[in-house]
Amino acid sequence: MHQLSKNTLRDYLEGLNDEELFSLAADEKKRIFGKEVFLRAVIEFSNHCNKRCQYCGLRSPNKAIARYRMPRETILDAVDSAAENGVGTIVLQSGDDFWYSTEFIGDLVKEIRSRHDIAVTLSVGDRGIDEYAYWKECGADRCLVKLETTNPELYSKLRMGESFAQRLERVDALRRQGYEVGSGIITGLPGMDIETTLNDILYLSGLALDMIAAGPFVPNPQTPLANAPSGSIALSHRVTALLRLLNPGSNIPATSALTALNPISQGEALLRGCNVLMPSVTPEEHRTDYTIYPGKNRTHATAAASLNAAKNTIQSLDLVPSSSKGFSKRKDNVQ
Predict the structure, then answer these.
(1) Which of 24, 135, 181, 306 could bond 140 through an S-S bridge, CB–CB 3.0 to 4.6 Å?
(2) Cβ 274 vs Cβ 258: under 8 Å
(3) What is the DSSP string of 264-315?
(4) pLDDT of residue 45
């Protein structure tokens, strides 16, 4: 792991030496992961959400969105399609939607694991710790619990009074249950600056995370932050590059938010320290309704077409799309 002073980190964040930073991050990624890029197929099975986060298009007060919930067989069909196309990890993602019972999600995980030798990641929000323990027993491997910001006051403001401490407790509890745990931030959210972003990087790096995501803010016209400026792609690239240097064995995705702002920026991130792509394989009839932000899932492509596009992007960069489960290498004595 690179030992970088706070002043050095700040200089990199401010763009004083992008060429050096991106080169260091690319070398570190290559040292740990070689040319492999892990693919995670995301199935967004519900866009219902009981939250009111100011930055997210799925927020419950948004009446302009076409809401949907996918039944069991539709979800499993999407899993089958992704597995047939050589994906090693499925991500089951939704808003905070308690319509799906503990047993429903548990049975879904069991069925996926019985059908395919793939890893299962859950991204289903603030469900109970006991529920997550049950899902781990059913065969779930990973959980994603994004923080979006590590500043407690800003967190509470953007998430309408919710507690940062409680969110962090969930991250810690999931790790104790044996999950690989992922978290991350949105760069360029209103209220953030270089100093808060630097603190985010240091905070995330102290959590021993197996996956760390950082993507730029993309304003959604159906949210209270509709008129806020977009986050900087360059800053997002700097953040993920620094996260790579500080967390060599963690999986770091090139986020879809980059593509929403500039289609080529996701590929650039893979050359600057990122090692994961997470294409959506949500069925075509629902994909464009999972509108966390404009430009996410902008096409009605089939699962096969979506995965092939991701593989083509990887190969065009002289990298190798991997069908492995892609577990974290954080504990492999590589740091």
Answers:
(1) 135
(2) no
(3) THHHHHHTTT--EE--B---HHHHTT--SSTTTT-S---HHHHHHHHHHHHH
(4) 98
Residue pair 284/300 in contact (Cβ under 8 Å)? The answer is yes
pLDDT tier for residue 333 given thresholds of 50, 70 and 90: very low
pLDDT-derived band of residue 335, with 50, 70 and 90 as boundaries? very low
**DSSP labels, 180-201:** EEEEEEEET-TT--HHHHHHHH
- Which of 117, 60, 65 has its CA nearest to residue 86? 117
Closest CA to 256 of 48, 44, 83: 44
**First vs last C-alpha separation in the chain:** 5
Q: Give 102-165 as a DSSP string.
A: HHHHHHHHHHHHHH-S-EEEEE--S--HHHHHHHHHHT--EEE---B-S-HHHHHHHTTT--HH
Distance CA(254)–CA(221), nearest Å, equals 24
Q: Is the pTM of this model over 0.90?
A: yes
CA distance 161 to 54: 11
| Average model confidence (pLDDT) across the chain | 95
Structure tokens at 54: 């100011």
pLDDT digits (tens, 9 = 90+) for 280-331: 999 999 998 999 998 786 666 788 999 999 999 999 999 999 999 999 998 7
Tell me which residue has tokens 């996260």: 243
Determine the Cα–Cα distance for residues 14 and 302; give it in Å rounded to an integer: 40
Dist CA 3 CA 170 (whole Å): 29
Which tokens belong to 137? 């027993």
Mean pLDDT for the stretch of residues 69-90 = 97
